[in-house]
Every structure is written in C-alpha cells, then in structure tokens.
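Re: the request from the purification team.
They wanted to know what the chain is likely to look like in 3D before they choose a buffer screen. I agreed to run a prediction and write the result into the notebook, where they can find it.
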Amino acid sequence: MNLELKKLLEFGILNIDKSSGPTSFNISDFIRKKMTNLGVRKTSHFGTLDPKVTGVLPIALNRACKLTGYFLGHDKEYIGVMKLHEEIELGKIQKVIDEKFIGKIKQVPPVRSSVKRREREREIKKFEILEKDGLNLLFAVECEGGTYIRKLIHDLGKELGVGAHMLELRRIRAGIFSEENSINLYEFERAVEDEEKLKKIIIPAEEAIKKIYPIIKIKKECTDKVLQGQPIYLEELTEKKDYKKDLIIAAFCEEKFIGIYKVINEKRMFAKSEFVMQQIK
C-alpha cells in the first residue's frame, strides 16, 4: 500500500449514499469490517439517519472520527413525501409554512428519539411544497442540523388542522457533503478491491475542514512544539488574524494540516488546541 492511500485511510471521509433499511451504525460498521485488512480500526458517521431514510451519510475513518462533533451541526437538505390526512388547498399549506415554519422554530424530539425530550430551537431556512398529488405532497427542506423532519411534518399537519405524516425522506446534503459526489455500498465494495479506485472515493479530512472553518497558517519553525499540543502564539502566525474569541479555526503549516483550534486572544496567546493531528508514519 502506498503512502497516499495510507494517509487517506488514516484521516479520510467516505460520502456514502445510504439505502433504506440499515441503521446508520450498521452502515458504519459494515465499512469498518470491509476495510479492517486495510488498517481501518474504527469508523463513525456524521449524523444519524433513520433506517427508512436514504441519502447522504458521511463516514469518518480512523483519526477522522475525532472530527465528528465539528461536522454534526452544519445545515442539512432533504427532499421527501408527506401524506395529509384530509384534503386541503395547496395555497393554504404554503401560507402556513411561510408563517409558522420558516426561520427559528421550537421542536420537542419525538417520543422514540434517543435524546432528552426537551424543547429546542432550530432554524428552517427553506420549506417548499414542490408537487401535490391528492393527499401526497413532495417537499424540500433546508434546515439547521439536529432538526427532526418527521416531527416537522407532524407539527405542520397539526397546525393545518388535518394531520400529516411523512412517507419518504432522502437527505441530499449534509454540510459540505452532497449526493452528487456520494457512492453507494455496491460502488464502495468494488473500490475496496482496487487501490486506485479507493483513493478516488476517500475525501481527505483536511480538505473537508478547509471548506467549513477559517484557516490560519503558522511558521514552519514552530510546527514541532505546536504538534506537541502547545498553544499558538501571535508571533507564530505567518500573518496577523483578527478573529473573535471562541471561534473554531483550522491551523496549517504551508499545506500540512496541524489541527483544530479555539481562538483565546489572551495577550500573546492566540489559540488553544481542540484536536492536534500527529504525523502519519
């Protein structure tokens, strides 16, 4: 195995197109078992999908598993089908959506969810009815991570006074990961047998990080001590950055990923480490 593939397996992400049926954990575990002989020790998914829900399910490999929390809260996009329990005019449905279900909303997780059932605020950026066929409606939603779409549909039906439930749901985007560059499990299994194909389907984790967090660069001579977990000081930056306290940033030395940091701005101390990426040997 060449070094390039070894690095991808140690700090990479697979953008899987989940099928209906298996749980998100099942998919993650299946991938780990298929890649054990390639040195993959652990896997984790970026955001649970219900067994019946299909679509984008990013899977982190090895050290990239530590990044899970840095990707979970990002916006998601879905397309799905809901069923109304009684006939109602399309114009009225969209009017209620625009007035009650766009912007900041309150949600209580469903009874069967694994999280504590307390009211939480989530942002709905887009909620549109695309087609109506009798009592069935095709819809599109763009929302903050952690939004329960099934509950959103239930609450809409309640607000309309007719009731509604979700029939089908597909996630078409999770943060920077979209269905356009996702692969199904059949394509994954074929790629595992071919190193060149495998290299093409694994996304370098540092490239994904670049797309979601501000980048700082540190001087080459400071790399060793920063990799030992020491904070980053202002004089160690290649150029001054005026970032607000508590902002999460990504640190690089030239093109080498150093780690994830939180801005501190205490005198000379610029940032403290959240995750440091040790050299892959």
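For the purification team: DSSP finds nine helices and 15 strands in the chain.
Please add any questions underneath this entry.
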